[in-house]
Design brief:
alpha/beta; eight-stranded mixed beta sheet; about 40% helix
Length: about 325
Amino acid sequence: MMRTRRILGRLAALTAVLAGWAAPAAAQDPLPSWNEGATKQAILTSVKEATTPGRPGFIPAAERIATFDNDGTLWVEQPIYTQLAFALDRVKTLAPRHPEWNTTEPFASLLKGDLSAALAGGEHAILEIIMATHAGMSTAEFEQIVRAWLATARHPRFKRPYTELVYQPMLELLAYLRANGFKTYIVSGGGVEFMRPWTETVYGIPPEQVIGSRIKTSYQMTADGPVLMREAGIDFIDDKTGKPLGINAIIGRRPMAAFGNSDGDRQMLEWVPTDHPRLRMLVHHDDAAREYAYGPKSHIGTFSDSLMAQAEASGWTVISMKHDWQRIFAFESR
């Protein structure tokens, strides 16, 4: 009898140990960098609803499409867009070949270090800079230049590579969605060939799932074989109303979840079907201490009052960096 009790006692102890091992795995938080609260709960609830057959919000696996803006949504976009920082460095590199830039705007101001004057021309000035620094080479050559720049460039405030300035909570969200059968896409106003060389390594998003603005490109046969040449002209701008157009052209399905941070993402969130509650989220940069605080008055990543009003009226979730994220970057201590 005593022996039986000892055996049963050992089995009970072993069961308790095994339960202790299993419990942490079962209770593991898929979003550890998100603070507990309504925003995190909205994500967890929506994903559970989308993946549970028989629930009103269930989404068949083939239709689980999630789209993400890049600048300001997945990585830092202040004080200037990363691709613009790349273009400005390219101006300095190419300047010896273009003496006319010393007296031609916006290049003259750039070479003097006056960024504000250079960008006073608005979108036209930016397009001139992009065309001068991104065209006249093959797509393969451009990819090599982008990779080399990202390997050495550092953010002016954080003094780290730009690829380290991605938002840890959003990396967790991408992984969580993919673990639940969602296919994740980048839908950005940035250049598609600027993003594709690194998005798979940084975000786990392969190049064929990156939608962006495009420069005109031509097919040419050279002595070394066929190449795709980047020409001085814009083929497509993937911003504002261009985002639903790009999604339709490349994906062919409407997203069931969309994430942005600015007025340029408004139409992408509108394009998510409204038949059931879906994830429509906007990152609000309100943490000057850990990152930046900006909104309706910013020329970079403008989050207008009208967008905030639409988010409130439509039931979109506004993510507060300050209150919803335990940490912003992976290198931060928790």
